[in-house]
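Hello Y.,

Per our agreement to keep a running log of every chain we model this quarter, I'm adding this entry. I've kept the format consistent with earlier entries: sequence first, then predicted structure.
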Amino acid sequence: MTRLINNHFHVHPLLWILLGIGILTGSLWQLVIMFSLVWIHELGHYAMARFFKWRIRSVMLWPFGGVMETEEHHTRPFHEEVLVVVAGPLQHVWLWGAISLLGYTGWLSPATIEMMHVYNGILFLFNLLPIWPLDGGKLLFLSLSYALPFVRAQQILLYLSVFFLVVSLVSALIFLPFSLSTIFLAAFLLWENRLEWKQREYSFLRYLMKRHEQNGEKVHKLRAIHVNEDIPVMHIFRQFKRGNHHQIFVTRPNQSRAQIDEGECLYYYFTMKQSRAKAAELAEWFAS
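Predicted structure for the entry above:
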């Protein structure tokens, strides 16, 4: 894969194939414009993430968008994640002004300026659709995870994402001219949602691991979790919410309660490797 700017930016091979097709079909200029807009969009995400000192693994540029992979796994402060997400769509706002200004110079034909405006608007609106992994889908997940436990938010996100994807596809087929690219894009997004669903447990474990490494999140809003002693430890984790630091209260048959900090609970699970333990064993271990 070809490197751009630095080791973080990469171009997917499919894009080179489409550029080759563009040369043969005479649509290279349109593809160059689309690629440039996508690159600036992803550069917005990248610059904001670098500003907050996120650990970035890579930025993959596709023909119709891009994906930035980081090592943060949803453990950064809420406002940081929101700003990193919206930094991409915001690029299209100043791009609209830049394209309009370019139109006054006369350097490009009115048809080219109009095409740039259309592509810029399409990318802006498309990325705000509440579909995973588009920016709108990420904002939807952030909103859900702020109000609900992480696991529940993840499940609802994927249900809503597929629903909005189907609605968007049907609407496009009804109101817009038929295009194979629309079908291809919908199939790609559906595949991404399928992969996210299959990997949801792995994603949750990565989230827990990061909380364990950071000893909780940076926003320490205390939240109590009350469980019976026969509840598995993993079921306790499924009640964890972003932006909260949890105190777990384990109720015993004699009506006594054991209080355990989330850091201790995560330590017991990951460091002591007690993945099948129940709350009673957790309470006894820390009481001893």
